[in-house]
Amino acid sequence: MKEADKKEIESLRITLHNHDYQYYVQNSPSISDREYDALYQRLKELETKYPQWITEDSPTQRVGGKVEQRFRQITHPVPMLSLDNTYNVDEVRAFHQRIKKGLPDVEEDSIEYVVELKFDGLAVALTYEDGKLVRGATRGDGKQGEDITVNLKTIRSIPLEIPAHPFKKIEVRGEVYMPKKEFRRLNAIREEEGETPFANPRNAAAGALRVLDPAITSSRKLGIFIYTVGFLDNDNFQTHYELQKALASLRFPVNEHNRLCSNFEETLSIIEEWRNKKNDLDYEVDGLVIQLNSLAHRKMLGSTSKFPRWAVAYKYEAEQAETEILEIVCQVGRTGSITPVANLEPVFVSGSTVSRATLHNEDEIRRKDIRVGDRVVIEKAGEIIPKIVRVIDSGKKRQPPFKMPTVCPECKTEVFRPEGEAAWRCVNAACPAQLKERLKHFASRKAMDIDHLGPAVIEQLVESGRIKNFSDLYTLKQDEVARLERLAEKSAQNLIEAVEKSKTAGLARLLFGLGIRHVGQRAASILAQTFRSIKALRETPYEEMESVMEIGPVIAESLKSFFDQKTNLLDIEKLENMGISVEEQGDSPKEGALKGKQFVLTGTLSEFSRDEAREKIESLGGRVTSSVSKKTDYVVAGKDAGSKLEKAKKLEITVWDEKEFQKQIESA
Ligand code: IVH
Known about the structure:
- The protein is α+β, with helices and mostly antiparallel strands.
- The longest helix is centred in the N-terminal third of the chain and has 24 residues, at 2-25.
- It starts with a helix and ends with a helix.
């Protein structure tokens, strides 16, 4: 029954919104994930049947929507100011004095403050019209920001709709953050994949908000706290605290630790209270915001061009601690770079125990004159990697200055420091330390994706001398692997199967996996597409390589020196002989067969993942966007295609099913 289905869709939408709220805002889910998924699937199923009833605010529409080449600039109707900072209690007292002076007719007793945590993330503004989220923007420079609605919609604690009454139009403001747990998870993956980890959760959140693909934003579990409004069409509120309560009742995620203080001294005790307690939170807090509660008082004081006069931020300094340098060890990376690391007497700082700190390089050690046995001050703020600030002069006799090793700590080959670089390097391609790191990279998910080849297995295989290069991996036998420590029979079989499977990973993954300096995933993919085989790549003159789009002299130089090494060539030859694909499969594409054509992918394809389909189109010169418009040339519709397909039909855009898509790319 059509009517009954429509009712069910509406009721499922409400039910799912309620569960999102309980889970993501109140942190108290009332159903299991499995039950949630079942409801979600049911809604999806009905929406596929009736695409005309899909609404923008449906829980199924969080990921999707439009991403253009770049984000659109928007002007904030009300500027987003920032806050004046204070760093000690005296400065906070001075702020209170200024407030008193600015409100000469107000009794000190009736000056109330609200103290809030200052979240270390990114300020955003969310606009709701008639109860629907219509726009989300970054702060930018405070006057102009970027329209990142599609990405903000993926944050599950942001309501897509609110009761339209009593606010027909309201802009709320808050801070988007990445939970510490998510930050650690993300960085662990990045390191595993040989990518540079994010320096702190704030940068990671900023990155996630500025990607052009909302599916990526969605996969990074961002959170948000709403702390104020930009504008609203209802000015019955007397105080900030009251306004926040109203926002919370509209189901906005308002932080639970906001405190109303009936006098100034209370604000100071809250500063002390959170100095250490902030480290126990799962989000980064770099200070507190102290602000007047009365909105009338705020109006009287007004703002400067940059800051409101009625609020300040109190910033906690990075926490410091004293400890001792037990030893300085040198680690060898995948490319042979040697990084000195200090092992420290363990000390608790900023929420965790620190026992190591990177010393970066030789110059850094010399500049700070750091020596073994020294007492040092270390500093750490939240999730930021600890650093050594300075050596404490204890007046005692010190050890001699630290000297970088002249030979590799692992293989004893003489090290050298290339001109203009800060790092010393071990140039022995067979160095076991480098080999272990290289194998880890080779096996990582974005390279050859060899599951079960973890660090412990690699360690044993390299230490025993069994594996000396990549090709040796492909000679492993199941019974010898099963004999390794901590490896069950079943895992041995899985490992052998994974090694076998990796033979068909393809040229791009192989090139990335080889760990050639400066050849990241993207460069590897371009090289594979352009040169189609390792042989062709090796034989291409340097100048020609350099002229390939996005390759440039640094990568070309690095490729050249990689192929100049006999051991590398030998290993590649062996890989080839053992059946590892060193050539790009399929005919070479007619360059630009789909040049300038704009595609939208929708529904599920059986033979390709979305990424694969996109890669195919892009390799033929086409472009993939996420929403259907008049500019779209083709829509590729897989199974269960929904509203995009409808829209394509309405706009009379050519639609290809999967079979047609395959036919077209084959003939291209
Ligand atoms: S209130 C007039 N409250 O701090 C500005 N800001 O330095 C009113 N921030 O741009 C801002 N937590 O990104 C406010 N609880 C909080 C905050 C907060 C973090 C950020 C915000 C703002 C910056 C100001």
